[in-house]
Amino acid sequence: MIVAVAGGKGGVGKSTLAYNLGAALDALVVDADLGMADLPGGPERGPDLHDVLAGRAAPEEAVRPGPVDLLPCGRTLEGARLADVRRLREAVAVAGYEHVVVDSPAGLRADAGAPLAVADACVLVASPTRWALADAVAARTLDCGLAAVALNRVVEDPPTRAVGRALGAPATAVPADPRLARSLDSASPIAETAPESATARAVDALAAAVRRCSAV
Question: What mean pLDDT comes out for the span 59-88?
Fold first, then answer.
């Protein structure tokens, strides 16, 4: 199952949640932000998603194994220019993974819609603020089944029930947690650093929603 992690606004922690959701699902995580890659590519230089979309490498060649297996994206303008987004479905369908989590570009641009077009479902990420939730509602209009909504970096009681009713999917509050924020840079998902924490339980709840969606 291909799961797009999307958001109507940048800076809400979407890439961090995609990485940790991948850990909870034992999934491959793909950085599909062709112009502003966020997920780490590892110290070694090898093929990346730009190369795969340009037909210069097979998807399997670009996978970086680790605590969470990653298919990183390149960070050059030339690579982004040569990438053919029409190859994205083939690029993310890497053999051997029951789930593939695709970190999508933020916003409503055409390149943001490409991962949603190839995904079976999506997880929508938003900050628990009025303006961010409005962006999330706008992003919901993109044509992709919604598995769950993540209200990220929560410090107070969030309106999870109201958001869930408005968007027609379960909403989960993910607490503000510096261990989650550091997980990308340290390559240490919250499931490893704090498996009993409320944050890890929230990520597990998102993973459970994805599994329920895939069972339908």
Answer: 93
Per-residue pLDDT of 154-192, as tens digits, reads 988 888 888 888 888 899 999 999 999 999 999 999 999
pTM recorded for the entire structure: 0.90
**How is residue 109 written in tokens?**
């641009």
Bridge partners (DSSP) listed for residue 150 = 125, 172
The closest alpha carbon to 28, from 95, 104, 113, belongs to 95
Of 87, 84, 72, 102, nearest to 1 by C-alpha is 102
Cα 153 from Cα 143, distance rounded (Å)? 26
Calculated CA dihedral for residues 83, 147, 61, 86, nearest 10 degrees: -30
What type of residue is 189? P
- Name the phi and psi angles at 30, rounded to 5: -115, 125
Cα(22)–Cα(99) distance, integer angstroms: 8
Which residues are CB-contacts of 66 (< 8 A; sequence separation ≥ 6)?
42, 187
Please give the order of strands across the beta sheet that includes 2-6. Answer: 70-71, 28-31, 100-103, 2-6, 121-126, 146-154, 171-175
Domain boundaries, the chain: 2-215
Torsion of CA 76, 80, 82, 84, to 10 degrees: 150
State the CATH architecture for 2-215: 3-Layer(aba) Sandwich (3.40)
91 vs 62, 172, 187, 200, CA distance in Å? Answer: 10, 30, 23, 29
